């Protein structure tokens, strides 16, 4: 017996992130109460998250809430929540493609989706922005298979692939692919490209900050002058990207770009937005790769020459601190030179790490800000 509140949940690694997965029916309906439960489950606010299951980094302080969908041609609805570390804040203002990789396996394990042979396609509605994805999960013998030979940079070892395909993610948070209406502009004395192909991202040249672009996340995080310059730009550009006041928001992401070193398209270091990503987000890399294909962006100038105008499906590798991230994109070129991304697909892996109940202390305070 326990006097704590026990709530069923699963812990998954999804791509290069980790988070708690809940069925919507197991959480309070009231948003403030739900957020209070999630903060307690993670152990926030506390930078070490010592009294909860969070991993003391934004990439391991994530939550997925899943329910059976009532929408046509959709199996499940997925709401992503970012639980802050140092503040009592839970935010729903962004998608997360890494955590998305765990949604298909979770939906099957929880009986929300039936398996259909050796692999099962799970059609997922991303509640945060209204985007849609299809995740293909390995299900031989009607069970989710987690082991396999697929390797992704940023995760040791190999696992079963979860392939994910997105359609129609242009402007998912900002309303337009180039939300400021320009491919490049100068803000606070720095050239920037603002783009949203699934994730709002601001691209800047690393060299414009006196950096090579190949620094480690720790080196960048310890540079307070850099961080405050980036935050200053972020707060201004957030308004221009139709995101409103972004002070307490996790978007836009701030991405320093430099030429690729290992045969990829471009090299990146991404602030998400205050800590530096050990790799790069899924939709974040789709946005960066897309920027590389649009004439007049900062990224295009850095990669031009490596692209062709063929309307074909191609893999684009975005380099990051722990390797590279491959995005397969299908492009359409209009006569006037406008490029549209028709489809983006990529490979992740995911693994169920724990299934059980998370304990919420009695008298858990409800003093929460929801964004
Ligand atoms: O861009 C981190 C992650 C992400 C987001 C972040 C992500 C995406 O790696 O789709 O996956 O940018 O906050 O989990």
| Alpha carbon gyration radius | 20 Å
Bound molecules: (1E)-4-oxobut-1-ene-1,2,4-tricarboxylic acid
What composes the largest sheet? 8 strands, mixed, barrel
**What sequence of helices (H) and strands (E) makes up the elements?**
EEHEEEHEEEEEEHHEEHHEEEE
Spans of at least 5 consecutive residues whose pLDDT stays below 50 are: 366-371
The tally of beta strands, per DSSP, is: 17
Could you provide a short overview of the structure?
The protein has 371 residues and is of the alpha+beta class. The protein has helices spanning 31-42, 97-109, 217-221, 224-240, 282-293, 298-303, and strands at residues 5-14, 17-23, 62-68, 76-83, 89-91, 119-126, 131-138, 161-167, 185-187, 190-196, 200-205, 253-258, 266-271, 313-320, 323-333, 339-360, 369-370.
Task: Give a verbal description of the structure.
- With about 375 residues, the chain is of the alpha+beta class.
- The protein folds into 2 domains: about 5-170 and about 350-370, Diaminopimelate Epimerase, Chain A, domain 1 (Roll); about 185-345, Diaminopimelate Epimerase, Chain A, domain 1 (Roll).
- The chain has 6 helices and 17 strands.
- The chain has helices at about 30-40, 95-110, 215-220, 225-240, 280-295, 300-305, and strands at about 5-15, 15-25, 60-70, 75-85, 90, 120-125, 130-140, 160-165, 185, 190-195, 200-205, 255-260, 265-270, 315-320, 325-335, 340-360, 370.
- An 8-stranded mixed β-barrel has the order 1-2-3-4-6-7-8-16.
- A hairpin with a 5-residue loop joins β15 (about 325-335) and β16 (about 340-360).
- The protein is globular, with a radius of gyration of 20 Å.
- Mean pLDDT is about 95; it is low at about 365-370.
- (1E)-4-oxobut-1-ene-1,2,4-tricarboxylic acid binds near residues 16, 98 and 281.
